[in-house]
Amino acid sequence: MDPEISFVVPALNEAGALPAVVEEIARAFAGRRHEIIVVDDGSRDATATVLAGLKAARPGLRVLRHARTAGQSRAILTGVRAARAPLIVTLDGDGQNDPKDAVTLVAALEADAALALVAGERTWREDSLVKRVASRLANGLRRRVLGDGAADAGCGLKAFRREAFLRLPYFDHMHRFLPALFRREGFRVAYRPVRGRPRRHGVSNYSVIGRLWVSIWDLAGVIWLAARARDPGGCEEL
Asked: Which of 48, 46, 24, 62 is nearest to 195 (CA)?
């Protein structure tokens, strides 16, 4: 039978974290038909070897691998395109998202057919003071300019409808603007509090300065996209 939920896990150099991530997803959704898709975004560590071992032990695990690193947004798009379920859950491959929180997000999505996206917002995160301040400033600016109501655009834990996601315009770093992009297409979005966990393995693939620069650049692009959207007010076949 086809799965009800597809988990899409983008991963770059996360060999140490992925076994626990896959196991936690499987435990949290043991009672539901689901599939787990890990997209290896051209990792240079032992991620490919670790995933091969996980797949041998868990045949239902699907592993996709980019020939070269293309970024988190592209990895998510690759996974969503390959997914077989109508509902998608994304979470980071570093283990900082708790898969048990996805149960609440999926429940909210299934309870309201009008919702297309339920995004997690971390109530706690273990980051340096510089990262927390930079994130607070960036989120405040984005929320004020885009009016998307999102308090934590950097949280990778989200649940959404596959069909709606595939209608969004793709660009690098689009995963940080999903609430605004869903709203641009006329979809309803909601937010739920989730836990943030410290990274147990590896190092972050983002720097504070690099993330701030691309955030400003991308924000300008999303403002342009929002301004160029036109709503036909519905459509019917005659």
From this structure: 24
Question: In terms of DSSP bridges, do strands 5-11 and 115-122 run parallel, antiparallel, or are they unpaired?
Answer: unpaired
86 DSSP assignment: S
Paired strand residues for 196: 97
The CATH number of the structural domain formed by 5-227 is: 3.90.550.10
The amino acid that residue 23 corresponds to is E
DSSP 63-99: EEE-SS---HHHHHHHHHHH--SSEEEE--TTS-B-H
pLDDT (tens digit per residue) in 13-43: 999 999 999 999 999 999 999 999 999 999 9
Among 154, 93, 98, residue whose Cα is nearest residue 121: 154
Domain locations in the chain? 5-227
Q: How close are the terminal C-alpha atoms of the chain, in Å?
A: 36
